[in-house]
Amino acid sequence: MTKTLQSLTHLSRLTVVPPIWLFTLACALFFTVTTDNFAEIGNLTNILQQTSTIGLIALGMTVVMINGNIDLSVGAVVALAASLAVGLQSDIGTLPAVAVGLGSGIALGFLNGMIVWKTGVDAFIVTLGAMIGVRGLVFVYTQEQSFFAMDFAYSDFGMSQTLGLPTLAWVFLGFTVVMHWVMTSTVHGRNAYAVGGNREAALNAGIRVGRHMVVNFMIVGFFAALAGITLSTQMGASTPNLGREYELWTITAVVLGGTKLTGGAGSILGTLGGVLAIGILRNGMNLMQVPAFYVLVILGAILIAVLFIDRQVNRAGSEEVEA
Amino acid sequence: MTAHPAAIHSAAELDDLRRRAPLLKLDGITKTFPGVVALDDVSLEVRAGEVHALLGENGAGKSTLMKILAGNHQANRGQIHLEGEVVHFDNPMQAKEAGIVLIHQELSLVPEMSVAENIFLGALPRGMFGTVKWRVLHAVAAEILKTLGCKFSPRDKVGRLSIANRQMVEIARALVFTPKVVVFDEPTASLTDAEKVVLFEIIRGLTKKGVGVVYISHRMDEIFTLSDRLTVLRDGKVRGTLETSETSEDGVTQLMIGRSLEGRTKRAAGAFGPVALEVKGLTCGSLYHDVSFQVRKGEVVGMYGLVGAGRTEVAETLFGLRTPDAGEIRIDGEVVAIDAPPAAIARGLALVPESRKEQGLVLGMSCRDNMSMAKLSGVTGRFGFLKPRAEQAIYDEYAKTLDLRAPGPAALAVNLSGGNQQKVVIGKWLATDPEILILDEPTRGIDVGSKSEIHDLIRRLAASGLAVLVISSEMPEIMGVSDRVLALYHGRIAGDFDAETLTEDRLVQAISGL
C-alpha cells in the first residue's frame, strides 16, 4: 500500500507538466490547422534539428539560472568552440579538435565561475565581460576568416539521420534526459535549487556554494561549446560571428519554460517546452510567410504575455496551505 | 546523519550530568560592530541536560551572542569551550559538526523546496552517482515530523506552509544531527498554545538525552515553566546568572531593565490639546479588528503588543499603505479617506517606519537628500528644478534640532550609526511639518545613548504640540515615553491604560490575552 503510494508520488514528481507545454501544444495545434505542411514528419524533425542548438545551450543555462546566476557569454563560446573544432581539424585530427573545442567551453565556464565566486562580482557583469572578450578572442584566432571543415565525415554527421530522426535531435533529446535526471534526482541538482532559492540558508546548511556555482558554469560552458560544434557540423564550416544573440534566445527559451531570473525555481522539462515553443513559432510563421521582422515583434510580445499570464496564475495558486 | 537518539538517562544520572563540568562555556566574549559594542566580556555556562534561559531586551546582545556560538559571527575577544576543549567556528557548518545547532529566529528555509529537502538541506542522503536517496530522505523526514507531532507531509513545499509550521521545519532540521547544544531563539513567537506544548515536550526530551538547551525568550511564563537556570543580558553585559527556582519575575525584570522608570515628568490629562487623530472600529481582514483609539495634541500614545499583533498594520493603514475593510479615521474631527501616502502627508501625518534600512532611508544617498525627500515640493523652484539652498536649509535646521552627528550633509546615510540614521528619518518627516507623528519601533537596533536621545526627542515633540503614536515591543520604552498605552492582542485592543497607573504585570497580561 505505502509502496504503491510512494511509487505513485515518485511518478507524479516526474510527470508534473510545466505550464508552458500547454502553450507549446496550442501553437502546434494552431499551425497544424492553419498551414498545410506544419504537421508533416519532415517538418517536425526539421524543427527538432533547428532547435537543437539553442536547446543544448538552454539545458546548461537552466542549471545556471536555477542556481541564481546567468551566463551571457554562451554565444561567444559557440563561436570559439566551433572555430577551434573546425580550424584545428587539419592539424590534429577531427576528434582531438572537437575535444579542444569542448574543453575551451568548459575552461571558460570554470573561469567565469571562479571570477564570480572569488570576486563576488555579479554573474551578469562577469559573463557580459566574457561575452565581449571571448568574441574578441575568436576574431584574434580566426583572423576574421571563416573555416571550412576538411573532414567530410564532420559535416556528414550534422546532416545524418539515426533511427528516423536527425542525429543532432537525438543528441539534444539525450542530453535533455540526462539533465532532467541531474536536476531532479541528484544531490548536485537539488543543491542548485537550494542555492538559488535562499543562498543564505544554503550557506548555513553547509552547502559549498562557491564550488557548486563553478561546476554549474562549467556545465553551461560545455553545452555552449557542444552547441557550437553541432552547429558547425550542420554548416560544414565556422564563422567568427557564429552564435551572436544566442544568449538572448537561450534566456528567452529558459524563462518561457518557467525558470525564474532570480533563481530557485525552474525545470529542464519547462525549458524543453520553451525551446520547442520558440522553434514551432518561428517555423510555423515562416510557413505562413509572415515577414521575418514581424516574427521578431510577435515573439517579443509573446514572451511578455506568457510571463504575465504565468505571474497571474501563480499568484492565484500560492495561497498558504494550512496543514 | 540520521536521527539516532542518544541514551536516555535516568533522573539520578541526569542530576550527576548537570553537576559535572559545564558542557559549554563561553568565556569573556566581546564583539563590536562599527559604532556599537554589542557584547562586552560576556561569560555563560551551559550544563548538559539543563535548559538555560537567556533574557534581555531587544538589542541587549542575545542574538549576537548566539550567532557567535553558532559560527555566524566571530568574536573579537574571548573563547568558547565545548566539553572542556577550546573550539573555534569559522562558519555555521563547523559549529553544527561540533554539535551546536541554532534554530534561527529569522527563518532560513528555501521556500521552493519540499519540507524533507529543507530538513536535510546541505546533507541530502546520497546514493550511487550522487543521486538523492528519496526514500530514505522522506522516511527519515516523516519520522522526525512525527516525533514533533507535525501534520504536514515531508513532500509539501515549504513556501506553502504557515509560519508556525515553517518554525517546526526549522526545529526538525536540528534533530537530524545528534546535537550537544541546541539554541532556540524566540521559538514561540509564531506558535499557537497547542504547538507550544509540543515544543516544550521536545525540549524536555532533548534535555533527557543530555543535550544542553539555550532558550531565548521574552516571555516570563515560558521561562519559568521551562528553564533550570537563567542569565540576563543588558546592554551587551551579563547582569546575573540565577537558578530559576530561586528568583521571581520581578527580580528578573529588575535585572533586565536595570534602571528605574521613575523620574519622568508626567502632565495632567487636562494639559493636552484637542483630539488630533481618532480611529473608530478600524478593521482590516485577519490583521486587526475593531481598533478604536484617540490621540490628542501634545500626547504620546504607546502601542504595545507582540510581533504579529497588528501594530504595524494599523500604522500602515493610517498612512494609506493598506486599505481598511471597515471603520473610520478622523483627523481634527473630520472623517478622512487616506488611500495613499501622499494623501496622508497632505493631512499632516508622518510615519517613521519599522525598518530603517529597508523602508526609511535610501542608504546610498546623502543625509541631505534623504532629509528633503518627503518635502521635495517645498524645495523645487520654477520648472521643477531643485533648489540646493532650500535643501541645505532643511538639513541645517533638523540636523540641529535632532543633534545629528554626521560628517556633513553630503555623508551617505549608509555610513552613519543606527541612531544617527534614525535621526535622519525623523528629520525627513519633521520637515513635512506634521501634526501627527507615528513612530514604529523608533529605537530598534540602536545603542543605548541614542535611544534615550530619541526618547527625549519624542517627549519634546509632544510638548511642542504634536500628537505622537509610538509602536514598540520594548516595555521600558513604551512605559517610559508614553502618556497612555494601548495593548494589542491578536489584532484587538486588549487594554487602554493611563501610563501613570500602569504596571508591567497588567501590560504583560493584556498583550498575552489574559
TrEMBL record, chain A:
<feature type="transmembrane region" description="Helical">
    <location>
        <begin position="213"/>
        <end position="232"/>
    </location>
</feature>
<keyword id="KW-1003">Cell membrane</keyword>
<keyword id="KW-0812">Transmembrane</keyword>
<dbReference type="GO" id="GO:0005886">
    <property type="term" value="C:plasma membrane"/>
</dbReference>
<dbReference type="InterPro" id="IPR001851">
    <property type="entry name" value="ABC_transp_permease"/>
</dbReference>
<dbReference type="Pfam" id="PF02653">
    <property type="entry name" value="BPD_transp_2"/>
</dbReference>
<keyword id="KW-1133">Transmembrane helix</keyword>
<feature type="transmembrane region" description="Helical">
    <location>
        <begin position="72"/>
        <end position="88"/>
    </location>
</feature>
<feature type="transmembrane region" description="Helical">
    <location>
        <begin position="20"/>
        <end position="39"/>
    </location>
</feature>
<keyword id="KW-0472">Membrane</keyword>
<feature type="transmembrane region" description="Helical">
    <location>
        <begin position="123"/>
        <end position="142"/>
    </location>
</feature>
<feature type="transmembrane region" description="Helical">
    <location>
        <begin position="163"/>
        <end position="183"/>
    </location>
</feature>
<dbReference type="GO" id="GO:0022857">
    <property type="term" value="F:transmembrane transporter activity"/>
</dbReference>
<feature type="transmembrane region" description="Helical">
    <location>
        <begin position="46"/>
        <end position="66"/>
    </location>
</feature>
<feature type="transmembrane region" description="Helical">
    <location>
        <begin position="253"/>
        <end position="280"/>
    </location>
</feature>
<feature type="transmembrane region" description="Helical">
    <location>
        <begin position="95"/>
        <end position="117"/>
    </location>
</feature>
<feature type="transmembrane region" description="Helical">
    <location>
        <begin position="292"/>
        <end position="309"/>
    </location>
</feature>
<protein>
    <submittedName>
        <fullName>ABC transporter permease</fullName>
    </submittedName>
</protein>
TrEMBL record, chain B:
<dbReference type="GO" id="GO:0005886">
    <property type="term" value="C:plasma membrane"/>
</dbReference>
<dbReference type="GO" id="GO:0016887">
    <property type="term" value="F:ATP hydrolysis activity"/>
</dbReference>
<dbReference type="InterPro" id="IPR027417">
    <property type="entry name" value="P-loop_NTPase"/>
</dbReference>
<feature type="domain" description="ABC transporter">
    <location>
        <begin position="24"/>
        <end position="260"/>
    </location>
</feature>
<keyword id="KW-0762">Sugar transport</keyword>
<dbReference type="InterPro" id="IPR003439">
    <property type="entry name" value="ABC_transporter-like_ATP-bd"/>
</dbReference>
<keyword id="KW-0067">ATP-binding</keyword>
<keyword id="KW-0813">Transport</keyword>
<keyword id="KW-0677">Repeat</keyword>
<keyword id="KW-0472">Membrane</keyword>
<keyword id="KW-1278">Translocase</keyword>
<dbReference type="GO" id="GO:0005524">
    <property type="term" value="F:ATP binding"/>
</dbReference>
<dbReference type="InterPro" id="IPR017871">
    <property type="entry name" value="ABC_transporter-like_CS"/>
</dbReference>
<keyword id="KW-1003">Cell membrane</keyword>
<comment type="similarity">
    <text>Belongs to the ABC transporter superfamily.</text>
</comment>
<dbReference type="InterPro" id="IPR003593">
    <property type="entry name" value="AAA+_ATPase"/>
</dbReference>
<protein>
    <submittedName>
        <fullName>Sugar ABC transporter ATP-binding protein</fullName>
    </submittedName>
</protein>
<dbReference type="Pfam" id="PF00005">
    <property type="entry name" value="ABC_tran"/>
</dbReference>
<dbReference type="InterPro" id="IPR050107">
    <property type="entry name" value="ABC_carbohydrate_import_ATPase"/>
</dbReference>
<keyword id="KW-0547">Nucleotide-binding</keyword>
<feature type="domain" description="ABC transporter">
    <location>
        <begin position="272"/>
        <end position="514"/>
    </location>
</feature>
